[in-house]
Predict the 3D structure of the following.
Amino acid sequence: MSEHQPRQRRKDARPQELLDAALALFVEKGFAATRSEEVASLAGVSKGTLYLYYPSKEELLKAVVRSTLAKEVAAGAQQLATHAGSSTEALQDSLLAWWVRVYNSPASGVFKLLLTEMCNFPELAEFYTREVIEPGEAIMADLLRQGITRGEFRPVNVDMAVRSITMPMVMLCVNKHSLGACGFKDVQPEAFMREHLQLLLNGIRADGASAAPPSHLE
């Protein structure tokens, strides 16, 4: 029996309540296995009310992605755009703090959901690529190119470096909602993220010197 209990019915449910219910069920059961009426029930509304806001389950999932990961990507872009320090500090501090925030938020569950479902729903895969992957990778690519231009980083294959940053972080979020959800909590997420970015910085710094560990997450 699901651990999720339906909310008390409301005369008019807010869209965010529906999105929260959808995300919880999609991550737990999978997109294909979740029925629209289950989402409506968990949010405490009728199926008809759900369809007033989101006319299909596919549109509901797109709204979930927009309100979680896509929103976080936009916030990360704004944060890095206003960063006044070095590229090294931006990657080591701002980017690290962003990943920690995503990991600790419901948005982390979207990674597991989409990675396990996308092959069966090509349209959703294209949507995820357009709304999350491409803008997210563009932000990190700009950060790395800026560091190369400033002489902080040595010339590297930027596309490969971006994937070297993101793939372990994504898998950490997937682990949270797979092995972690089953009680296997041997990974310390913030320590892993710190060490992961430290290794990468030590590999791309132009002077070959070790980067100092970030202080605000110690």
